[in-house]
Amino acid sequence: xxxxxxxxxxxxxxxxxxxxxxxxxxxxxxxxxxxxxxxxxxxxxxxxxxxxxxxxxxxxxxxxxxxxxxxxxxxxxxxxxxxxxxxxxxxxxxxxxxxxxxxxxxxxxxxxxxxxxxxx
Length: 120
What we know:
11 strands; 51% strand; mainly beta; 7-stranded mixed beta sheet; 4-stranded antiparallel beta sheet
């Protein structure tokens, strides 16, 4: 299984980015997928998850209403749209595969992460 994130970069506060996670060795329509982030010097924070069917999503309280998680089963790719970004959201954003089709299933594979820097 390989999960490859892209789309990270620098953005000003209030700006937007879209992260992508291209999966191989696994079919994203068969498992729950999530995004998890880690800010410098801090622990992991679960950001958002999507069920295997794509019909259900859930978000962390700090990002709900600003971030949108989606997936394209035909492209086997996961996306995270980040809007209204805040300086404290500078972090490495990891794509993660769940061990089952449940949104909050334990992660069994991780990508290497994409750095998002929010700064003026």
